[in-house]
Write a sequence for this structure.
């Protein structure tokens, strides 16, 4: 049994275009202590996967229309609100892209970490404050005693993200979900935050679900990777195997977008856009952007199948014409 198992998860939203399927049979598993990267372009369902796991999908308009999310065997899709509140922060914690949205501007950062500790642990206020300062020290914040008394706006973006990491690990969660934790930061600070996440994972023994649109981060951080497109996992396996021997043209496109000296460090993009959910047809959602697409690709959705040591959902990969 994996620590976290997402099995055939379907999430729908009621919209003005009718009911759309944001997650269409997503399966992921996370083992204790490992890092799984979930990667894909904007709108492919990464955050909805994370929010479903946290029990934070707004319902309505959202609905979990099928599947299961099991944490150490317990199905969270069937858990009560009280159980989910107790679970959040203590067993699974989440770090968001923009720390300003999850930090409260009117309280000091030390106060907010201490409150997070007091919510789930029976310790005195003084002890919670001392623990908060120790955590700030652990995540590399200089003069943690003084910084604990700062308000979020007094800290830089990178320091705020360190505060979020401190808060997230304050109750030693088994699972840490980091949703694009470095997108709002500049490149050198991004690298520092990734280093910190690696260290923290080592020290605290947490499993990390790292959400990113950056294949470069995958190669640096992840043991395994799941590539998502239009609400489905389209390729998954060991990170180095998927990066070195990707079988899906979409994954290949993301890999080609990793800035490298080969193309002068210039940022590339896959031509075309992700189709909006209400316009998804019967075929492969990537077909209209795919140079290799055949008629079959436009008429039938490929399932994930074993191909070259890992799983890919591509007719061409499965049938050997790619
Ligand atoms: N409240 C909502 N109502 C309707 N559709 C929604 C809602 N929330 C999300 N969606 C849709 O679900 C899909 C997946 O969204 P999600 O936020 O998971 O994307 P993402 O992969 O995290 O993208 P990004 O990289 O931009 O954060 C998108 O098509 C989005 O429009
Ligand atoms: Mg997102």
């Amino acid at each position: 049994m994996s620590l976290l198992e997402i099995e055939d998860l379907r999430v729908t939203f009621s919209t003005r275009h009718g009911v759309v399927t944001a997650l269409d049979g997503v399966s992921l598993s996370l083992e204790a202590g490992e890092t799984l990267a979930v990667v894909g372009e904007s709108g492919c369902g990464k955050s909805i996967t994370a929010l479903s796991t946290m029990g934070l999908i707004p319902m309505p308009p959202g609905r979990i229309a099928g599947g299961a999310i099991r944490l150490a065997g317990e199905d969270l899709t069937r858990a009560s609100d009280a159980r989910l509140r107790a679970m959040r922060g203590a067993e699974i914690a989440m770090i968001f892209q923009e720390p300003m949205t999850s930090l409260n501007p009117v309280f000091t950062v030390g106060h907010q970490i201490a409150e997070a500790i007091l919510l789930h642990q029976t310790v005195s206020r003084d002890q919670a404050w001392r623990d908060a300062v120790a955590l700030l020290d652990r995540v590399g914040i200089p003069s943690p005693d003084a910084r604990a008394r700062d308000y979020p706006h007094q800290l830089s973006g990178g320091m705020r993200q360190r505060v979020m990491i401190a808060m997230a690990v304050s109750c030693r969660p088994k699972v840490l979900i980091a949703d694009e934790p470095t997108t709002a930061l500049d490149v050198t600070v991004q690298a520092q935050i990734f280093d910190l996440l690696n260290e923290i994972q080592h020290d605290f023994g947490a499993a990390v679900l790292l959400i990113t649109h950056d294949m470069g981060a995958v190669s640096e951080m992840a043991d395994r990777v799941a590539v998502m497109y239009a609400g489905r996992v389209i390729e998954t396996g060991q990170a180095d195997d998927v990066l070195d021997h990707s079988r899906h043209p979409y994954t290949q496109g993301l890999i080609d977008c990793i800035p490298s000296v080969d193309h002068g460090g210039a940022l590339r993009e896959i031509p075309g856009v992700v189709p909006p959910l209400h316009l998804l047809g019967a075929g492969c959602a990537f077909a209209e952007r795919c140079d290799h697409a055949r008629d079959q690709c436009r008429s039938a959705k490929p399932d994930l199948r074993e191909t070259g040591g890992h799983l890919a959902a591509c007719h061409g990969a499965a049938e050997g014409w790619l």
Observations:
- The chain has a mean pLDDT of 93.
- The CA atoms of residues 226 and 236 lie 4 Å apart.
